[in-house]
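Worked example 2:
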Amino acid sequence: MFTDLTKSIITGLDVQENLQFYKADTFPTINPVHWLVSHFAVGGYSPLQRLSGMLTAHMTQIKPRNGFRWHPHRGLEIYTYVIDGELYHEDTTGGKGVITAGEVQRMFSGHFIQHQELNLTDDYARVIQIWFVADTQYMGLEPHYEQVPMANMPPRMVGDGVVRDIIGPNGATDAHVDARLTSTVIPAGGQAEIELPQPGEDLFLYFVKGNGRIQAPRFSEAIDLYDVVLASPRAETAVVTAGEQPLNYLAFYLQPFLSEQRAIT
C-alpha cells in the first residue's frame, strides 16, 4: 500500500491554537550509540511525526573522531546546518567538503546516493539535519551536492535579529522542495519578532543555540535549547529576547500542517 509521505502526522498534541510553544522535553532525545545524541523535534518518536513532506528535523551531537560511515539514501533532499564544530561530508557523486558552523549543506539523493558524515576533530560537532521527501517532478535529476558558506547567505535585519534565507525564493540553496527556511541569530540581550508564515503556510520553529524568552499576548516563557514554536498565519505577534549569549533559531515555513490536524479533530 502506497503511503503519502507528504501528509502531516501530529499525535498527542493539541494544535487548535494559532501560536503554540512547546518545551524541548515534549520531544524525544535518544542516545542509540556511545558517540551520538539526537533530539527529534520532527520525525522518529516525536509527536510531530511528519510535517508536509518534512520527514525529520533533529539535532545530532557527534563525539570527536566519530560519525556515520558510508550509508545509502533514496528519494530525499537532505539539509545539514552546522551549529557547533565541523562535519566532513563525502558522497558517491564526488561531492565532499568540511561544513563549519553557520554553513549549510544540501544533498539531493535522487534514486540512490551513498555518503558519509564524520566528525574528524577533537571537539564535539552539533548539527541540525533536515530530511524532505524529494518532489516527484525532480526525481529524474541525478544525485548532487551543494555546500553554502555563510558569506553566500546575505543577511537582513528583523529587529535586532540577523536573518539568513536558506530555502525559498530568496534562499541561498538551489532547493527542490516546496518550503522556506530561515536562520535567525539575535545578539545577547537583543529582540526580534518571529516572522509569521504567509497565507498557505504554517510555521515550525526550532531553537538551536542559546536561551532567552518568548513573549506573546497569551504567554511568556523562558526559552532553552530545542524548544519549539508552531504558528499559523493568524497567530499573534511573538517577540523573542536573547539571554546573555546569542540566540539562534531555524524557522521552517511549510505547506499547511496545522489545518490538516484541525480538520481531523
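The chain has one helix and 24 strands. Residues 9-264 form a domain with the Jelly Rolls fold (CATH 2.60.120.10).
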